[in-house]
Amino acid sequence: MSWSNEISRRTFFKAATGLAGATVLGSAGFAFLEPHELQVEQVEIQLRRLPPALDGFRVAQLSDIHFGEYLGLDYLRKVVATTNAQKPDLVLLTGDYVTAPDYSHRRERNQYALQIWPCAEVLSDLQARCGRLAILGNHDCHTNPAIVTEALREKGHAVLHNQAIPIEANGARVWFAGLADVLNQYPDPETAFRPVPPGECVVVAVHEPDYADELRRYPVDFVVSGHSHGGQVRLPGVGAVYLPRGARKYPMGYYRLGDLQLYTNRGVGMIGLPVRFLCPPELTVFTLRSTT
């Protein structure tokens, strides 16, 4: 091998090593910037039983805020402003407003639950002509679900616990049901769907998306979930590094399960580490479309 070839080879490996290092550092930097890059996902959902008068009804979904250590008031206000700019007809909040302590701090559960008060105060600025609906997530239930529910309701959010209510607009209605958290409480579809007349359109909010398999047994049109954070960190060719129990089958985005449709939101906040990679936070805006 000639000296010039050796120099070229060394130069190549130095350049390659430098490029790899820059890529790693750049990726790391991006991972710390991405948590604040809220993406608005516009999703059209065609529903066979949706009344034609409600064609174009817009639902904004926020999930997994995890207010506190990694997500503060200023950023949450920006999320609310971005949501209001979409001019939704209804806002749907699908749980995990606070973060539960680890097992070494279980006695402090109430303290963690109290984070809901400033969070709920900011969320009360969400604007939608048909109101704001909410369910609880597993972290809310691991802290103190009574405190979380009280704060949300006092700030004007209708918290659904195995309940369905009609949302009326333009002389027609669609039913929205909220189920109890799957991992900590007892979701009861039978009770929730009891007031729904046969043949009417039903949208269900349940924190853990994998429960959609159970809901296929019921006359449900569309399920909206969160919980997964989309994995929070996703690697090319690998996908999510970690997914929590209850969100391993349907971790992110849109799914069609026979007659049932499901959407899993990537969430707004973070847990574990203040990092997202190839998995930015999400505000989802659903435009419901009638097929009749």
Give the structure's gist in a few sentences:
The protein is an alpha/beta fold and 292 residues long.
Describe the protein's architecture and organization.
- This protein is an alpha/beta fold and 292 residues long.
- It folds into 2 domains: 36 residues; 252 residues, Metallo-dependent phosphatases (Purple Acid Phosphatase, chain A, domain 2), CATH 3.60.21.10.
- The protein is built from 8 helices and 14 strands.
- It has a 6-stranded mixed beta sheet with strand order 1-14-2-3-4-5, covered by helices on one side.
- Helix 2 links the parallel strand 2 and strand 3.
- The chain is globular and about 50 Å long.
- The termini are far apart.
- The N terminus is likely disordered.
Task: Give short descriptive properties of this protein.
alpha/beta, 2 domains, six-stranded mixed β-sheet, 8 helices
How do the strands of the widest beta sheet line up side by side? 1-14-2-3-4-5
Query: What general outline do the C-alpha atoms trace?
Result: globular
Strand count = 14
Largest sheet: 6 strands, mixed
Mean pLDDT: 90
Q: Helix proportion of residues, in percent?
A: 25-40%
Q: Give the H and E element order.
A: HEEHEHHEHHEEEHEHEEEEEE
Number of helices: 8
Domain count: the total is: 2
N-end to C-end Cα span: 75 Å
- Name given to the CATH architecture of the largest domain: 4-Layer Sandwich
**CATH topology annotation of the largest domain:** Purple Acid Phosphatase, chain A, domain 2
Radius of gyration: 22 Å
Low-confidence stretches: 1-30
The CATH superfamily of the largest domain is identified as Metallo-dependent phosphatases
Q: Give the DSSP E fraction (strand runs of 2 or more residues).
A: 15-25%
